């Protein structure tokens, strides 16, 4: 029998996360503009099953049904993202009131249900007109992002309970601009480093815009992956250190006032090339954070590359662990090690942490009675929550945990082939069916806390 889940601190924030392009649909409704993911998904060969996010989970029209799911789950917070092209179709200029009207309805319905709205401003859906002008390779995009943040905060700043500026800037850099596996589909490898700087600069400018309009705390959500050498050679250890600097430190060191890690510093540009980092940029980026969002899925194994490889490392499968339907290793202790490692690495500079994404994909199929049993997901979440508790016991200030995701959704380049939800979605009918993991998580989050008698 599984041991009882340990008790989390009073006031611990329990939530679930989603993102706009993955669930909203309504791709052309109410003046919404085109995003880079609209363009990418409609390009043949880019998406595993040939699908798009045009309809996704139709959350734009069904958000009240989804708020009812949240209320039934008993969570205290819901992390959603605002679609930049729904608010500013060209990325800047005139605001579309109908776009903000939708998010106002969502926020008000969440508050009426006793659920804290946690708003992410950028979850990878850059307006296509900004991409046409250079996207995140162009410095002006950072200023446009601050303009967008100001527009959202002007409408919602009195009701949103936590702002998250960017979701996973490293993943958007690496998959969107390094390898081309995600929108906008650029394969620039390390020549994409200016994308990291301009995203972080946009974050810093947005922090100022949000704080001018709202008293709610401000965060960023970074993806982290503990790195292990795949071999025992000095070269493998050096490769692991290099990948750790790129994946984990590139978008954390400058946020916490350390500048960029050696080897991946966009201030180091060839002679005659315009400087990417200008005077004062690092101060803007290092604006104090109220919360650091941590997204964790799995560790990474790395070995040394060959002299002919374009990068100083090579990612290889991490063996010896169960695997999800995404073929990701299931390593709950990696989350504990990550959280403790962040505290060790950054010390007092580290703000309170909230785990803003953690979850798993499995091939969940309804049984003959329409029920969806997903014991693998329950085991995954159980192990990872225990890892969070162990990190708290070790002295790490972790104040919240969000499951990815409330709903099965459109999973980026994998289309509808990967299911992460606590709720099963039949994409043909849009029928929502809570899985057994939904009930399990509800029971975890609704237990009495230490200051709350049973």
UniProtKB/TrEMBL annotation:
UniProt record, GO biological process: cellulose catabolic process
In Swiss-Prot or TrEMBL terms, this protein is called Beta-glucosidase
Q: Which Pfam families match?
A: Glyco_hydro_1 (PF00232)
Instruction: Keyword check for Hydrolase, yes or no.
Output: yes
Q: Name one GO cellular component term.
A: cytosol
- Kindly state which keywords UniProt assigns to this record, in alphabetical order: Carbohydrate metabolism, Cellulose degradation, Glycosidase, Hydrolase, Polysaccharide degradation
What enzyme class is recorded for this protein?
A: hydrolase
Q: Where is the active site?
A: 168, 357
Give any GO molecular function from the UniProt entry.
Answer: beta-glucosidase activity
This entry's Enzyme Commission designation comes to: 3.2.1.21
User: Which parts of the sequence bind substrate?
Assistant: 22, 123, 167, 297, 404, 411-412
Q: Which organism is it from?
A: Micromonospora yangpuensis
Give the catalysed reaction(s), semicolon-separated.
Answer: Hydrolysis of terminal, non-reducing beta-D-glucosyl residues with release of beta-D-glucose
Keyword Transport appears in the UniProt entry: no
Family listed: Belongs to the glycosyl hydrolase 1 family.
């Amino acid at each position: 029998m599984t041991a009882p889940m340990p008790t989390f601190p009073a006031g611990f924030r329990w939530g679930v996360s989603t993102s706009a392009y993955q669930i909203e649909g309504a791709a052309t409704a109410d003046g919404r503009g085109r995003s880079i993911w609209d363009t990418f998904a409609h390009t043949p060969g880019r998406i595993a099953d040939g699908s798009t996010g045009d309809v996704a989970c139709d959350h734009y029209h069904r958000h009240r049904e989804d708020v009812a799911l949240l209320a039934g789950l008993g969570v205290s917070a819901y992390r959603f993202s605002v679609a930049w092209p729904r608010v500013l179709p060209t990325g800047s200029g005139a605001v579309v009131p109908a776009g903000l009207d939708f998010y106002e309805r969502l926020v008000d319905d969440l508050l009426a249900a006793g659920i804290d709205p946690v708003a992410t401003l950028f979850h990878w859906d850059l307006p296509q007109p900004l991409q046409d002008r250079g996207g995140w390779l162009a410095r002006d995009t950072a200023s446009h992002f601050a303009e967008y943040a100001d527009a959202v905060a002007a409408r919602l700043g009195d009701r949103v309970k936590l702002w998250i500026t960017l979701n996973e800037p490293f993943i958007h850099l690496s998959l969107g601009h390094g390898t081309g596996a995600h929108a906008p589909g650029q394969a620039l490898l390390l020549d994409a480093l200016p994308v990291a700087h301009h995203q972080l600069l946009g974050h810093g400018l947005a922090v100022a815009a949000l704080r001018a309009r709202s008293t709610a705390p401000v965060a960023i959500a970074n993806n982290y992956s503990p790195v292990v050498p795949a071999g025992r050679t000095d070269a493998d250890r050096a490769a692991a250190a290099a990948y750790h600097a790129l994946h984990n430190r590139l978008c954390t060191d400058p946020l916490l006032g350390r500048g960029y890690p050696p080897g991946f510093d966009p201030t180091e540009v060839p002679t005659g090339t315009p400087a990417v980092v200008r005077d004062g940029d690092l101060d803007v980026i290092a604006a104090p954070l109220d919360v650091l969002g941590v997204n964790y899925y799995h560790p990474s194994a790395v070995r040394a590359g060959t002299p002919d490889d374009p990068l100083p490392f090579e990612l290889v499968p991490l063996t010896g662990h169960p695997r999800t339907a995404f073929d990701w290793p299931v390593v709950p202790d990696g989350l504990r090690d990550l959280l403790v490692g962040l505290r060790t690495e950054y010390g007092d500079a580290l703000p309170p942490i909230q785990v803003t994404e953690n979850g798993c994909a499995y091939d969940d199929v309804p049984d003959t009675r329409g029920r969806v049993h997903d014991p693998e997901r329950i085991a995954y979440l159980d192990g990872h929550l225990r890892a969070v508790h162990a990190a708290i016991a070790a002295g790490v200030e972790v104040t919240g945990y969000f499951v990815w995701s409330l709903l099965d959704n459109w999973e980026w380049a994998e289309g509808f082939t990967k299911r992460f939800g606590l709720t099963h979605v039949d994409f043909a009918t849009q029928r929502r069916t809570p899985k057994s993991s939904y009930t399990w998580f509800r029971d975890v989050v609704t237990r009495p806390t230490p200051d709350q008698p049973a």
